[in-house]
Amino acid sequence: MSAESTLLYLDGVSVSFDGFKALKGLSLVMMPGEMRAIIGPNGAGKTTMMDVITGKTRPDTGTILFEGDTDLTRLREAAIANLGIGRKFQRPTVFEPHTVWDNLELALKAPRRPLKTLTYAISRDDRARIEEILDITRLSALRSRQAGSLSHGQKQWLEIGMLLAQDPKLLLVDEPVAGMTDAETEQTAELLCSIAGKHSVIVVEHDMSFVRALGVKVTVLAEGSVLAEGSLDAVSANQQVIDTYLGR
Amino acid sequence: MLLRFFLMGLDRKAGIVLTILAILAVAVPAMTLWVPADSPFHLSIFTVSLLGKYLCFALLALALDLVWGYCGILSLGHAAFFALGGYAMGMYLMRQIGPRGVYGNPVLPDFMVFLNWKELPWYWLGFDHFWFAAIMVLVVPGALAFAFGWFAFRSRVTGVYLSIITQALTFALLLAFFRNDMGFGGNNGLTDFKDILGYDIQADTTRVALFVATVAALALSYMIASGVIGSKLGKVLVALRDAESRVRFMGYDTESYKLFAWTLSACMAGVAGALYVPQVGIINPSEFAPASSIEAVIWVAVGGRGTLAGAILGAVLVNMGKSYFTGALPELWLFALGGLFVAVTLFLPKGLLGMGAQLKAKLPGRKASPLPTAQTANQATGQTAGQKGA
Prior knowledge:
The structure holds two protein chains of two kinds. Chain A has helices at residues 46-54, 77-83, 100-107, 114-118, 124-136, 152-166, 182-195, 208-214, 232-237, 239-246, and strands at residues 8-17, 20-30, 35-39, 61-66, 70-71, 85-88, 170-174, 200-204, 217-222, 225-230. By secondary structure, chain A is an alpha/beta fold. In chain A, the strands form two sheets. Chain A has a six-stranded mixed β-sheet, sandwiched between helices. Chain B is built from 16 helices and four strands. In chain B, the strands form two sheets. In chain B, strands 1-4 form a two-stranded antiparallel sheet. Chain B is globular, with a radius of gyration of 22 Å. The interface between A and B is medium-sized, with 34 and 33 residues.
């Protein structure tokens, strides 16, 4: 497959830490607007995959291209984020001393250089965009609350809101519903589905009912490479997948 | 734009701080120069210089709070920037002595004549002009901080490792400035100053003017610092203090943010040192001693880290305590200082300025915060931030 029309193109990516091979020749292709769920047992390399895409970890070998021509293996985290790759961590990390509003304002797509932020004054458009995101994430009433005082689920939502504010082309979401109630899980699935289309999304998740609710193509990782790919039903029926993951 | 920047940082707390400083700037000169000496409201010139010294330390504390309180960079070497600013001013003051030195050499300071030097080293050139020295007061500490920060932040040195390197930096400078052939007066440093800007440095009016200049520098630095903190840049700083990698994944180049605050802070510390030297009349390598930097950390911790006003309060109070103790019970001072630091860390993790909020939260029957969960959450973040910084 040619890399040109793809949004994200990983080919033969390997990473090892002190001899432990976290990724072994991982290959993955994402098309613009696509949403993908990634599942796999612990240690399958899901988080390491996100680390190499976002520049936190450098791969030992392999190619990672964004929009067909930008080599992500040479860039630093901030530069990659500015290309339009957003990341949501497993544990919700919002800026706890700041208000919900300030968290969104910091995430909002705007010039990132220090001198630009020193003289930044919020514009009417920016204000409207933050209001819109507060609305989508149902945090409007909590805008002046300190983010540290939010519940776990609300923090997850705020973090998704921050990603929306960042307006990335590709969103990497690590276990968005861990620790959420069933109702919150359902709402989160809805939210992610509404995001997909405008943005490409990669979701890493353990929760099978959540993955089912997303209803998207699933990639199963095991021991650092792709084990199977397809619809959830198709991969669930795959004997190898059952042996390494679902069966346990 | 500049006006808006300053207005951004002006909240109620800033109003109080600036009002107190304005009162000091008027009352202290009036009580010294115009109130007759036999009146109980008269301030001796000794007291004025002592107050001026405290406010120089307050400015150093403010600079330290900017990086420690808001970026989580615990500098154990901030006195180095203070001393470099002081040396830049000291070099100007040495050149102003001219032929009035013991050896009467119109160009060379006494210590150079004593070392049989024939001409002024190149790095002393220009220091006969006040404007040049004033620029160097900012440029030398700023450039050192920039170079140091560039390498340290880019190599992702953080936390305790960074603290240790800052300590090593100030210790290295201490050793370097002790050497006679560095050309900064060695062990004795620079002293015996006569004039500043043509005015007798010992005269009452000059000393009062230096005090007022210190108040002005502190007020201006406070406004700059709170303007920075109040801006979006300040919010980025606080965010990266608590979750640096998250800020990076948001597209902010956190290294340049830290470098900005770090360099600004070093320049402020340099100004503090430059105002300190003419008021105490000497600068020597002991200012580089690691203990001076650690003392500055204690001032900030006592007053309340991450509050700006607390840094000023802490510096003034601890130094007033030091003046009292070293006079009354000199052998007890270090124990008192150590005890103070332990007590503040244990009982007042947010310092004196945080004490009010802490007491309110503990009072039964009175709801300090509409969100009890918010209170505990804040304390939790404060602690993790503290651990990261320590």
